[in-house]
Write a structure and sequence with these properties.
CATH architecture of the largest domain in chain B: 3-Layer(aba) Sandwich
Number of domains of chain A: 1
Shape of chain A: globular
CATH topology of the largest domain in chain B: Rossmann fold
CATH class of chain A: Alpha Beta
Oligomer: heterodimer
Order of helices and strands of chain B: EHEHHEHHEHEEEHEEH
CATH class of the largest domain in chain B: Alpha Beta
CATH topology of chain A: TIM Barrel
Number of strands of chain A: 8
Structural class of chain A: alpha/beta
Number of strands of chain B: 9
Shape of chain B: elongated
Radius of gyration of chain B: 22 Å
Strand content of chain B: 15-25%
CATH superfamily of the largest domain in chain B: Response regulator
Helix content of chain B: 25-40%
Order of helices and strands of chain A: HEHEHEHEHEHEHHEHHHEH
CATH architecture of chain A: Alpha-Beta Barrel
Distance between the termini of chain B: 27 Å
Strand order of the largest sheet of chain B: 3-2-4-5
Radius of gyration of chain A: 19 Å
Strand order of the largest sheet of chain A: 1-2-3-4-5-6-7-8
Number of helices of chain B: 8
Number of helices of chain A: 12
Helix content of chain A: 25-40%
Chain lengths: 316, 220
């Protein structure tokens, strides 16, 4: 990983061996800038880069790329999320050129939540390509300097090649089924060309530890930087809902019991997040944390500070 | 087979003009097997139309071997000539073929055509093939990822697979990739999960205008 492939701050920090912190910012459903400004203020200086979600849970919001430009202009480095649900290979490549032109350098390649979860369940899904093929396509654009069709990325035969160079990310879920195939799925993404992954939020540390051990045994952590996902627990209802209704998230009964016993759930959630960060820092192969405090962005700075991770380091 | 289901009777009545002679035409192939538009269904629908509040001059019924094949459509030219409107109980292909054969006669669809699929048990059909024109079943243990995965993924399960079910409908929908994985495992072929499948060539699928198959070896 010593060779720098993009102009991404996140990549440079990871290359230096810093324990990185990324955050997440869900664009609002209207062009009310005050909401966005509040989230940006909450995350500025608290994280190294911030994921900008792409119509998350298939609900229409300000676009990931449009929000990324807004965020960048205010000094935060974005990780543009790109799903395969809404765009075919033409639209994706065109949007990548446009995102790069305007300064975006990190890209997270996702399949995307199914449209039935969102507010336009009658929309036609695209899925021209899947997340694995998207990773490969972005790597091809960067390293082979060609479009998916094989054509070189230049204006005409006489002009120079100017390719978009992204730091390529993806998601990894250690908790979904088939459980035994989850490290192989990461291995496949590594082969497709992913540079970093952010995991599904971890609540079952034992399961995550076993996954990481297998990742390290296969040397995948040397090919792919792994950021462990954290979503601080804010209420018992949230915890129970995730256990009963969200596929691909495992919540041990012992964790529910712990939170049932406590009087101040938010404080306990904070304490649990801090314990997790400490465990991740000790765990071989974990290169950072990805804190997904959607609609609770204000809590992130305190957690990062109490974890002893402030101020955030500079790349250069 | 092509699987279809009858439109709601209210929709059918809405599209039929009052006071006309209606010929209900069944199809004895796919839609007979899936109990949507065969000889029996022609009789049931005709009876329902006769009992409707809307009055028709005459309701008659007939069923032919296949409405997607001109050879069989020729058999009912006289009956069609004696009717004002044809109500076809075939799939969309049959309705269109009938329209081509009788361009001066309204041919209306009595069914919604759903998918290419299989009979899974009494009263239970399931889609099995998208007709994408580029079959990968040799690589996926005979289970189509395009059809069985909610997102048509080609490179393994997404993060929404839990207890063998798809997050889109955890009660009723199997995760297609979990099925593929388990069958590859039982075939001792899990290595087939690892190669990165390239983007599909959608030009072989429905991508503009009807696809055609022309085989010179069987042309006269």
């Amino acid at each position: 990983m010593s060779e720098i492939k993009s102009d991404s701050n996140l990549e440079k920090l990871l290359a230096k061996g810093e324990f990185v912190v990324t955050g997440e910012l869900g664009p609002p459903k209207s062009v009310d800038m005050s909401v966005l400004d509040g989230k940006i203020a909450a995350l500025s200086g608290a994280v190294d880069a911030v994921n900008i979600t792409d119509n998350q849970t298939a609900i229409v919001r300000i676009s990931s790329i449009g929000t990324a430009f807004y965020v960048m202009a205010r000094g935060l480095e974005p990780v543009v999320q790109m799903t395969c649900r809404d765009r075919n290979r033409l639209a994706i490549q065109a949007d990548l050129l446009g995102a790069y032109l305007n300064g975006a350098r990190n890209l997270l390649c996702l399949t995307g939540d199914h449209q039935s979860f969102g507010n336009h369940p009658q929309a036609k899904q695209v899925y021209d390509i899947d997340s694995m093929q998207l990773i490969y396509m972005v790597k091809q654009m960067r390293d082979e300097k060609t479009f998916q069709c094989g054509e070189e990325i230049r204006n005409n035969k006489k002009s120079d090649i100017h390719e978009p160079r992204f730091f390529i990310g993806a998601a990894a879920n250690p908790f979904a089924d088939p459980l035994e195939w989850r490290v192989s799925r990461l291995e496949k993404k590594a082969a497709a060309g992913v540079d970093f992954v952010q995991t599904q939020c971890v609540y079952d540390m034992d399961c995550f530890r076993r996954w990481m051990e297998d990742v390290v045994a296969r040397d995948l952590h040397k090919k792919v930087k792994i950021l462990a996902g954290i979503t601080p627990i804010r209420s018992l209802g949230m915890l129970r809902y995730m256990k009963s209704s969200v596929a691909g998230i495992t919540i041990p009964d012992s964790l529910i019991e712990r939170f049932e016993k406590t009087e101040d759930v938010k404080e306990e959630g904070r304490a649990f997040a801090l314990e997790q960060i400490e465990q991740f820092r000790q765990m071989e192969g974990v290169a950072g944390v990805h804190i997904m405090a959607i609609e609770a962005e204000k809590t992130v700075r305190g957690i990062v500070e109490d974890a002893g991770l402030l101020p955030r380091p500079q790349a250069a | 087979m092509i699987v279809a289901e009858q439109k709601p009777i209210t929709d059918i009545l809405d599209m039929l003009p009052e006071g006309k002679r209606i010929l209900v035409v069944g199809c004895d192939t796919c839609v007979t097997v899936c109990l949507a538009g065969g000889e029996k269904e022609v009789k049931v629908l005709s009876a329902a139309l006769r009992m409707a509040k809307k009055q028709f001059d005459e309701i008659s019924g007939v069923s032919i071997e296949r409405q997607c094949d001109g050879e069989f459509i020729d058999e009912i030219r006289e009956q069609v000539a004696a009717a004002d409107v044809v109500l076809s109980m075939a799939c969309g292909a049959g309705v269109q073929m009938m329209s081509d054969f009788f361009p001066d006669k309204p041919v209306l669809p009595a069914l919604n055509t759903l998918f290419m699929g299989s009979n899974e048990g009494a009263g239970y059909w399931m889609e099995r093939c998208l007709g994408c024109g580029d079959c990968v079943l040799d690589l996926t243990a005979g289970i189509c990822p395009r059809t069985r995965c909610s997102k048509g993924l080609m490179n393994g399960p997404c993060g929404g697979s839990e207890n063998g079910k798809c997050e889109v409908d955890p009660e009723n929908l199997d995760c297609g990739w979990n099925l593929i994985y388990q069958r590859l495992k039982s075939l001792n072929r899990l290595d087939a999960m690892m190669p990165i499948r390239p983007p599909q060539d959608w030009s072989k699928s429905h991508d503009g205008g009807p696809r055609k198959l022309i085989r010179e070896d069987v042309q006269l």
